[in-house]
Amino acid sequence: MSEESEDMHYRFERKFVFENKQNTYVEMLVKNHPANFHEIFRKRFVNNIYFDKPDFDYYFNNFEGNSQRMKVRIRWYGGAFGWIREPILELKIKEGELGIKKSFLLPEFILKSGFNAQNIRQLIHNADLPENIQEQMKGLQPQLVNSYCRSYYRSFNHHFRFTVDSQLDYFPFMQNHNLFLHKMADFNKVILELKYNQEYSSEANRITMHLPIRLSKFSKYVAGMEKLYLRGLQR
User: Fold this and answer.
1) 152-179 pLDDT, tens per residue?
2) How far is the C-alpha of 42 from the C-alpha of 70, rounded, in Å?
3) How many CB atoms lie within 10 A of CB 190?
4) For residue 180, is it left (φ>0), alpha (ψ between -120 and 50) or beta?
5) Average pLDDT, the chain
6) Which of 5, 84, 87, 115 has the fewest CB atoms within 10 Å, counting from its CB?
7) What is the CB neighbour count within 10 angstroms for residue 224?
8) Are the CB atoms for 35 and 28 separated by under 8 Å?
9) Which CATH number fits the domain that encloses residue 60?
10) pLDDT tens profile 99-110
């Protein structure tokens, strides 16, 4: 039986992009917020391998801001390379700012020089995934690896969460052979993300009104693809 975690509650995710600010500045904004946000987990690195269709359909839907979007990724925590423990396959479906997510535990693997798309296909094949997910993954290709440092905060009433992401790194994922030597770093951005369940949407403005910045649209997948090799791509 596959180990699946599915969040069937639609959740809002609203992003605020700070340019040329340190993560400590953004974290102080969170800590000084009137809703009394406090840190709920140790700061850690988040890593992803993002997938897309051969025609980059997921990229274009996110780039164009279509209301219905999807992201497929393998996520893990800690070091970006080497022995990868407890990797999770995530399918994230967005409708506007609302999203739901399905998660499946994958076998451990080693991400190192020489790792390629065939290794990914074998990893997915060996996983105990539902048949429909196996079929869906057959039509997708790994496109990039990204890594960033994340801190976690929750409001005093537990209705809202903030995450602060900094030190964004992007690596291209070649289909045949990867050395992971070509890295694009983005240390000029800090991403503040507000997350809350749909039932608390009426309270959200009281949270965002205390931020000195407007709501932004930002996708790490889109940003990474443009930095690495997709700038100027058209349908």
Assistant:
1) 999 999 999 999 999 999 999 999 999 9
2) 28
3) 25
4) left
5) 93
6) 5
7) 25
8) no
9) 2.40.320.10
10) 899 999 999 999
Cα 120 to Cα 47: distance, rounded to the nearest angstrom: 15
Candidates 81, 103, 99; CA nearest to 90 is: 103
Helices (H), ranges, 7-143:
23-31, 57-63, 117-126, 131-138
CB-based contact 235:66 (threshold 8 Å): no
Compute the average pLDDT of residues 48-61: 96
Angle, vertex CA 197, rays to CA 193 and CA 203, nearest 5: 80
Residue showing tokens 């309270």: 203
With respect to residue 28, please indicate whether it lies within any of the assigned structural domains: yes
Instruction: State the average pLDDT over residues 55-66.
Output: 92
The tokens 């406090």 sit on which residue? 38
Q: Which domain holds residue 105?
A: 4-230
Q: Confirm if 111 and 123 have CB atoms less than 8 A apart.
A: no
* Within-domain flag for 235: no
**Best CA proximity match to 49, nearest among 165, 159, 141:** 141
In terms of Cβ atoms closer than 10 Å to its own Cβ (0-12, 13-18, 19+), residue 32 is exposed
User: Going along 78-132, which residue ranges are E strands?
Assistant: 82-84, 88-95, 98-105, 109-111
In a domain, 94, yes or no: yes
- Total domain count, the chain: 1
